[in-house]
Structures are given as structure tokens and as C-alpha cells.
Amino acid sequence: xxxxxxxxxxxxxxxxxxxxxxxxxxxxxxxxxxxxxxxxxxxxxxxxxxxxxxxxxxxxxxxxxxxxxxxxxxxxxxxxxxxxxxxxxxxxxxxxxxxxxxxxxxxxxxxxxxxxxxxxxxxxxxxxxxxxxxxxxxxxxxxxxxxxxxxxxxxxxxxxxxxxxxxxxxxxxxxxxxxxxxxxxxxxxxxxxxxxxxxxxxxxxxxxxxxxxxxxxxxxxxxxxxxxxxxxxxxxxxxxxxxxxxxxxxxxxxxxxxxxxxxxxxxxxxxxxxxxxxxxxxxxxxxxxxxxxxxxxxxxxxxxxxxxxxxxxxxxxxxxxxxxxxxxxxxxxxxxxxxxxxxxxxxxxxxxxxxxxxxxxxxxxxxxxxxxxxxxxxxxxxxxxxxxxxxxxxxx
Amino acid sequence: xxxxxxxxxxxxxxxxxxxxxxxxxxxxxxxxxxxxxxxxxxxxxxxxxxxxxxxxxxxxxxxxxxxxxxxxxxxxxxxxxxxxxxxxxxxxxxxxxxxxxxxxxxxxxxxxxxxxxxxxxxxxxxxxxxxxxxxxxxxxxxxxxxxxxxxxxxxxxxxxxxxxxxxxxxxxxxxxxxxxxxxxxxxxxxxxxxxxxxxxxxxxxxxxxxxxxxxxxxxxxxxxxxxxxxxxxxxxxxxxxxxxxxxxxxxxxxxxxxxxxxxxxxxxxxxxxxxxxxxxxxxxxxxxxxxxxxxxxxxxxxxxxxxxxxxxxxxxxxxxxxxx
Lengths: 396, 324
Description:
- The complex is a heterodimer of chains A (396) and B (324).
- Chain A is of the alpha+beta class and 396 residues long.
- Chain A has 3 domains: 7-88, Acyl-CoA dehydrogenase/oxidase, N-terminal domain (Butyryl-Coa Dehydrogenase, subunit A, domain 1, Orthogonal Bundle), CATH 1.10.540; 126-233, Butyryl-CoA Dehydrogenase, subunit A, domain 2 (Beta Barrel), CATH 2.40.110; 247-388, Up-down Bundle (Butyryl-CoA Dehydrogenase, subunit A, domain 3), CATH 1.20.140.
- Chain A has 11 helices and 10 strands.
- In chain A, a hairpin with a 2-residue loop joins strand 9 (273-274) and strand 10.
- In chain A, helix 4 crosses helix 6 (235-246), helix 8 runs antiparallel to helix 9 (320-342) and helix 9 packs antiparallel against helix 10 (357-367).
- Chain B is of the alpha+beta class.
- Chain B is built from 9 helices and 9 strands.
- Chain B has a domain at 177-320: Butyryl-CoA Dehydrogenase, subunit A, domain 3.
- The radius of gyration of chain B is 19 Å and the shape is globular.
- The two termini of chain B are 27 Å apart.
- In chain B, helix 3 packs across helix 5 (175-210) and helix 6 runs antiparallel to helix 7.
- In chain B, strand 3 (128-133) and strand 4 (136-140) form a beta hairpin.
- The interface between A and B is large, with 53 and 60 residues.
């Protein structure tokens, strides 16, 4: 139970910090949320710089061009990336956190050759075609149909919540190849090039009024059989490899960002006058911020503990569900404090009178997605209670 | 950096756990009602090294660190071991006989006097009373304390005296030591509370797997299993924070010691109270009876919540760290 970093780990931190101090300002300000082409260029450009400096794919195996860093170095990496306010993984999210790791684990040599290195270099952007209007938390009930026709699958169906669909090159697509067997058994994982004949992407507006994700429609779309990852009807197992990656360290940098956000809220409270004093002098607010910060410290300790304990099990395990549940609900509570500090200034979703209401409300509204995406809080509670605590399954 | 328990730490934890399981199983807790103390058990705990754990081997101790002590106190908490455990542990090296269990040492934290009545735990069993004041650590003779036992203490395993007055006592350590003892005391209180977080999860889960209503175990209903999932999350937050407090006390260069202790204290004590309440709720009507031990955990959690500073004080201290 030792939190001390070794000299080698300190050296890694020092070099990374120096590199970030130079590169982050040089990469410039991020483009507008709705300028998708510029966002792709900005995010993939940063990914390329990471790759050239040897920092891309920090947890990826070295034989696929990754850094293969120790878990301690990975935690240092996430801390430093956040502290330097480096660009977010952005449009590279699905490729770096789902698609790439899945291909490394389950892809054919040809599939790995074609995609893995390009994802790592920021040359290929992926999106995710998992959820459907009728298959959310019950993902395995998905109905997007694929019928084998010679050396192609013919796909028809409707996917939803697909982030980055506007700018993606490939989609990790789950399709039903056998409707006759139990639902988990008849699913297949396909690499679907975007823009094939019969595909249509329709952006969907979020509660922020931005098209952060899309619906994707498939009508007799022909996908080569060689694009299948894993065996036919074995897609559910392949998918669970990906989902485990998603719940591992995917949010590590965001947690450090959240600590910074709390510091920004304290700064903001100091500039706002309430009841003849600055808002930060308010005892109730100090108590609440102190309490939340203590929980944030506990959260980061929890990440360290779960990452280190995963050394024994190999992959980030179901314990990651507890981290995700705690983190996302804590995030929303921090945002609520931010809104209260803003008070009526928060009626504007743009900065008014020099107050950062635009940024705070953007975060607050966006935070509503956290307890829904990547397995709702309710699904995480099912996982914890059934797979960790061993409680009997709900009749399904 | 490796936050996992070492093999030695696992062995230490398992040793204390199996001792407690054999010596004070949950159905024996009622035997401690009233006295909240047993001399023979105290001697056995001393033999296990509970009190002299961090005392150097050259002074007759075990020579281990704060992280090790956190593991030990989490196990004591898991089994609700009664007695002034934390104070006697803190007194090792300061009061002769504390480490060996020959002297039973209790204490009172008066660093932040708050105007509340003075209630002293386990006074009737004490050979020495430590008082923490901003000026230092004072040793008071328990027989010189004027007060009377509270007939009905909140925790039946933690007797308390309502104290009117006591002599200033002998100053045995300086102000820095007083603050240091309080900080370690808070960390070990958090560790003890972590044990309560863990055992209440186990108790609730075991009951929910057995108890049937509507022809199936109540633990299969999401309305109940989600309560227990939240209990598990609180346990894990408390565990990580308490371990981090121990590791940071051992190696202050890895972080902010006061903040690490505050985080452990806030998360573990709040977790213990919430988990103990939830444990009663999962047990339904039986949870509300004296017969089912769930109430012991809640009552001890309140005792822990009121030791070595209040939750509000720790939250304020974390807020103050933004002004530094």
C-alpha cells in the first residue's frame, strides 16, 4: 500500500509535463462545437502529435505501437494531460477506447494491419453503432438485421446515439445474424465503413441543442464478410471486451478535470457578491465544497486502488462499475453547486457580466448524459449487486 | 506506486480478522452490553499487537506503519470490537503499559472546544485518560474525574460518563504531538468506520439472499439490490480514502496529509452511518428489533462520527485548503 512514485515514474512525469507545456499552447484553442470538420482536424492533429512523441495509446501493447506503460505511468499520464488542459481525446474516443482495443484483442491479422496503426496515428476516426431505439440498457435485444449473401452481409436497421458519426471513417457495428436463437447468441460484430450506399446519418439534437450524436439508418447496406470481427454470432462476447475497456480508465482524466472545475468554482464564488460578502465566505457553500472535494479525493484514490487491484485480474473488472457510478453522480452534484453559485446569471447560456455561465451551464447540461451513457447508473447498480455482491438476478 | 496490499499486509489483516471471528463473533456482542470492556480480551488484543503496532521494535512494539494500522482497525471495526482501542493505541509509547495492554487508556479531544457537555467513553475501565488540548497532550488520573455514568448510553457497547470537571493533569507531550495524535486518531476512526461499512454490506446481502417475499429472495428486487449497490460504492470510497490516509501518513511526500485524513474521515464515517441505516432498512421489521445486531453498527457509527473532530470541521478544513 505504497503511493510513492519511483525515480523512473517521476522522470516519466517530468518529461511528459515538459512536452505538454510546449505542445498544448502550440496546438491552439479548440474549434466551435458545431464545426465538425474543424473538430476532427483539431482532435486528430493532437492524436498525431501524441503518436510522434510516443505518448499515443498509453495503455496499448508496444507491438501495436502503444506505449505499454505501467499502470502507475498511466495514472501519471491522465493526471498530467488533465493538468496541462491538453485537448480531449474527442473524435478519437471510440477508436482509441473501443474499436482499437477490440481489434487488438479479437481482430484478424489483416484487420489489425489495416486499422490499428491508423487509429493510433489519428488517421482513422471511428464511431459506435451499438444502441438502437428498441435496444438501450437491454442492448442484446438489438434488431439491426444482417443476412449473409455470398461474401457479404446485407444490413438493414436503425442505430442511435452514435457520437462522431458525421466525421467517422468506420463504425463498430453490432448486427443480428441469427434471430432464432437466444438474444445474446445471434449477434455479430462488424467493421462498417461509413458512407456505404444505403447508409444515412441524421444528426440528433441534445438537450444542449447541439448535434453531438446521430441516428444512423441502414437499408440493404452491403458489408464484406472479411469485415467481421470474431466468429458469426459471437459478437456479444466480443462486445463485452470493449465495454470493459470503456469502464476501466476511460474517465481518469475527466476526474482530474473535475477537481480543477471545483477550484474554478471557488474562484468564481470569490468574485460574486452575496449578502454583502463574497459568496465563498458563505459557510454552507464552504461546507458543501469541502465535502465534495473530500469525495473527489476519495474517488481518485478509488481509481488508483481499482487500477492496481486489476493487476491481479488482468483487465479492468466489474469494480470499475463502482468507480463509474460514484464519479458520474459526484460530477452532477458539483455542477449543481456551480449553478447555485451562478444564481440568476445562470439563466443565460452564454457568459453575462463577465461570469462564465456559458461554460458552467454547458458542463451542467452535458453532465446529464454521464449517468446514462456507457451503461446507466441503474445498470451499474445491477452489475454491482449481481456480479460483485452475488445477489440473485431480477427475473428477466 | 503500488496501492495493493503487500503479502505481509494481507497476512496482518487476515490474522486480525480470524482472531476477531473466533473471539467475538457477532452473536457474542450482546455479552459486552453495559461494561463494553473485558480485561481478558484486552490482553489478547495486546498480544496481537493492536496497541503497540506502530511503536518501534526497540521499544517493545511491532514497528509497523500507519497503513498497517488502518488495516488492523478496519478489521476491529468490522467486528465492532468494544473498548477504547484507538486511544490505547495512540497512548503506546506515551503511557507505560499501554502497548502491553496492562494500562487501559482512554481519551478526550478538546482541541476544538464546542460548548457541548463533556462525555467520556469507557471512563470506568480506564487506568489513564489522555486529554488533547491546543497546548499539548495531558495525562489525567481517571479517579480524579468528577462525573457520573450515563444510565443509557446511545451505543450499548460504549458506556459514557457525563463529566463535570477534572484536573488539568500532567503535560506529557507538546502541542505538535497533540495535533499529530488527533490526526492519527481521526484516520484510525475512519478505518474503524470502514469496517462498519464493510460488515453492514455483508449483513444486508446475507439477509437479502435468504429472506423470501412474493415467492423469491428479496435481494432479487432492484428496489433492494440498488440500496446494496450504493452501500458497496460507499464502502469502496471509504476503503480507498482510508488506505490513502494511511499511505499518506506513512509517506507525507505523496500528498496533503490533513486533506487525506479529512477525506477518509468524511467518507468513512458518513458511509458507516448511511450503510448501517440501509442495513436496518433491508432487514425490514427485524432490523428494528434489538435482537438483530444491525442497530449496534448504527450506534457505533454515531460514536465514531463524534470522535476526533466533527464532519463539519473536516469539511471546513478541506474548504480552507482552497485558501492556502
